[in-house]
Amino acid sequence: MSYIELTQNISKNLMDLRAGEPEVMKGFGQLSSSAMKGGAIDEKTKELIALAIGVANRCDGCIGFHVKALVKMGMTAEELHELMSVAVYMGGGPSLMYAANAIAAYKEFTAA
């Protein structure tokens, strides 16, 4: 699986939803912007939290979009590995499988 292709395909498919349900998508966009803006917790930390939740919830799309954002924010492989250990701790064996996917996404986005 290519996380670059996955995120591109999801974005394309969301365009249809945006056209059909503009208010829902606008609301989700506002929720995302509000939740992820820096405050007492900085933006990078919030992205790290979102990635850990995405792994624990077994969401490949979440992994792709949050790893992509974190690579742009300068996430290191060491940060990713520590984060994945917490996600695995919280989500058990299934999260371990998705932690491996997050590592693959990181490698793909850092190479791009």
Key traits:
single chain; 112 residues; mainly alpha; AhpD-like; 5 helices
Q: How would you characterize the overall build of this protein?
A:
There is one protein chain. With 112 residues, this protein is mainly alpha-helical. It has one domain: AhpD-like. It is 85% helix and 0% strand. It is globular. The model has no long low-confidence stretch (mean pLDDT 96).
Helical residues, percent: over 70%
Structural class: mainly alpha
Q: Identify the CATH architecture.
A: Up-down Bundle
Radius of gyration: 14 Å
- The beta-strand count equals 0
Residues in β-strands, percent = under 5%
Average per-residue pLDDT, rounded, comes to 96
Q: How many domains?
A: 1
Number of helices: 5
Distance between the termini: 15 Å
Order of helices and strands: HHHHH
CATH topology type:
AhpD-like
CATH class: Mainly Alpha
Note poorly predicted spans: none
Full CATH superfamily name = AhpD-like
Largest sheet: none
Describe the secondary structure blueprint for this structure.
Layout: H1 3-20, H2 22-36, H3 43-56, H4 60-72, H5 77-111
Helix pairs in contact: 1-2, 1-4, 3-4, 3-5, 4-5
